[in-house]
């Protein structure tokens, strides 16, 4: 697969302006809900979803390094 540095710049902008702020907001909610996973089964589904969003910046970082043409998505 060919490396496209323009795509790396696009994913860098995505990381800075979308992925980090959204992941930071979700991290607080995730931390508050984590202790309640053992008590309420439905909380597990919520925390699993939030964890996917929290790890989205890692996927963006991989896309930046690879200059991937595939958009990194949290889902």
TrEMBL record:
Species: Cyclotella atomus
Superkingdom as given in the UniProt entry: Eukaryota
Key words of the record: Signal
Range of residues in the leader sequence: 1-24
PROSITE patterns: PROKAR_LIPOPROTEIN (PS51257)
Protein name: Uncharacterized protein
This protein's record includes keyword Signal: yes
